[in-house]
Amino acid sequence: MEKVRIVIAGPRGRMGKEAVYLTGRTDHFELVGVLDYKHEGKRLNELDDFTSPAYDVPIYTDIEKCLQEVKPDVLIDLTTPEFGMFHAKTALQYGVRPVVGTTGFTNENLAELEALCEEMDRGCIIAPNFALGAVLMMKFSKLAAKYFDDVEIIELHHDRKLDAPSGTAVKTAELIAEVRKPKKQGHPEEKETIQGARGADFDGMRIHSVRLPGLIAHQQVMFGADGETLTLKHDSYNRTSFMSGVRFAVDEVLKANVLIYGLENIME
Ligand SMILES: NC(=O)c1ccc[n+]([C@@H]2O[C@H](COP(=O)([O-])OP(=O)(O)OC[C@H]3O[C@@H](n4cnc5c(N)ncnc54)[C@H](O)[C@@H]3O)[C@@H](O)[C@H]2O)c1
Ligand SMILES: O=C(O)C1=N[C@H](C(=O)O)CCC1
């Protein structure tokens, strides 16, 4: 089997580091370079967390130079929305398929990438959550929303997280909105005595974001009806939990020539 040539953007980050280790333990993956905003000209294995010879690859700060020199098949981005968008666009323009875990993309970003995939005849996967259990929680939430119109999403993350609500919560709300009868929840005359008490409003349903040290990534989707509640809950206790989804996405993006937003679209 030919190896998949991979570049990782954000290799020193919490997720990027796990993705680098994933390439080290996956026989058909080959890390061929990384993209950082510093350390140009160094080799990744010169840095403390990556001393294995498997990580003797160049560090680039210029994406175009990186793509021209190492010619990857796939670029995995785990950075920030601003750079994630720039990396995904540039990769597609070079015929390289992006797998993006970075969250915080706007609908305009998604539309732009969708058009670029079509123009370049290349796939791109944007996965707000790579944990397979979290994807199932989202799928089950959509199923439950056919029967329950009242729902609140409570997402809980570590306190280093930049975006709120989480990409997972937004995606869950979007999936629910596809099937839920439109409804403004709560009492029609309810008033917040402290601003934000009822959370963010998405199509009349509420999203609550909790940020605490000690947490990694967690979500509860709570449905209510007369005399009953149904709670769907997922917890990631470490970042290795995301890596089977990253491996799956890399294998799938090679077969794709369109934008895939969410692993639920390719998980049967
Ligand atoms: N899809 C998922 O399953 C999933 C899981 C966890 C986190 N995330 C998302 O992934 C992203 C990263 O999360 P994290 O916890 O690893 O954050 P982090 O802050 O630990 O890592 C981000 C890394 O990006 C690097 N970076 C910033 N600008 C860069 C640039 N221009 N070029 C190259 N590297 C650059 C930073 O140096 C940093 O190391 C966030 O958007 C987060 O929401 C997604
Ligand atoms: O740690 C993060 O940041 C995470 N972000 C994703 C999101 O925004 O949904 C997925 C889980 C971890």
UniProtKB/TrEMBL annotation:
Location in or out of the cell: Cytoplasm
Entry annotation: catalytic residues: H157 (proton donor/acceptor), K161 (proton donor)
Gene Ontology biological-process annotations: diaminopimelate biosynthetic process; lysine biosynthetic process via diaminopimelate
Annotated GO MF terms: 4-hydroxy-tetrahydrodipicolinate reductase; NAD binding; NADP binding; oxidoreductase activity, acting on CH or CH2 groups, NAD or NADP as acceptor
Keywords, sorted A to Z: Amino-acid biosynthesis, Cytoplasm, Diaminopimelate biosynthesis, Lysine biosynthesis, NAD, NADP, Oxidoreductase
Binding site for (S)-2,3,4,5-tetrahydrodipicolinate: H158, G167, T168
InterPro entries from the UniProt entry: DapB_C (IPR022663), DapB_N (IPR000846), DapB_N_CS (IPR022664), DHDPR_bac (IPR023940), NAD(P)-bd_dom_sf (IPR036291)
Binding site for NAD(+): G10, P11, R12, G13, R14, M15, G101, T102, T103, A127, P128, N129, F130
Annotated ranges, domain Dihydrodipicolinate reductase N-terminal: 4-130
Domain Dihydrodipicolinate reductase C-terminal: 133-267
GO CC, one annotated term: cytosol
A Pfam family: DapB_N
Superkingdom: Bacteria
Reaction(s) catalysed by this chain's protein: (S)-2,3,4,5-tetrahydrodipicolinate + NAD(+) + H2O = (2S,4S)-4-hydroxy-2,3,4,5-tetrahydrodipicolinate + NADH + H(+); (S)-2,3,4,5-tetrahydrodipicolinate + NADP(+) + H2O = (2S,4S)-4-hydroxy-2,3,4,5-tetrahydrodipicolinate + NADPH + H(+)
EC number: 1.17.1.8
Family membership: Belongs to the DapB family.
Function: Catalyzes the conversion of 4-hydroxy-tetrahydrodipicolinate (HTPA) to tetrahydrodipicolinate.
Name listed for the protein in its UniProt record: 4-hydroxy-tetrahydrodipicolinate reductase
Organism: Niallia taxi
